[in-house]
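Quarterly update from the structural biology core.
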Amino acid sequence: QTETSSEPEYAPLADATPNIEEEDTEFQELETYYLMKLARQQQSLEPLMKEKQELARAYLDELEQIDQTYEELKRELSQEGPYEYRVKLLIQTYELKLRILKQLQQQILKAKEHEKPKQS
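Predicted structure, tokenized:
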């Protein structure tokens, strides 16, 4: 037989709600994680981007546009938005940027493949 506990399986609401300092720390840690991930991705793409500057420029322009939109939304949400929205915005934004960098990498590699002379 299994024993059942009279304790609730959920934390009381007051304990489950982080305070502002905890939220800020968690948010900063999450943002730092994604910034480091993006920096590594960009660093690995650097040699390829130098070879295909025109192609890279279009993707980099798109990333800059995303950054501007993200900063505007982040400012608005920091003043009046719930913490969960800020976190979702951060994750969606950085995941989008990572996908764009991966697309850039694929496009550059594809372009380089087409440039290789065909051997018979």
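The radius of gyration is 22 Å.
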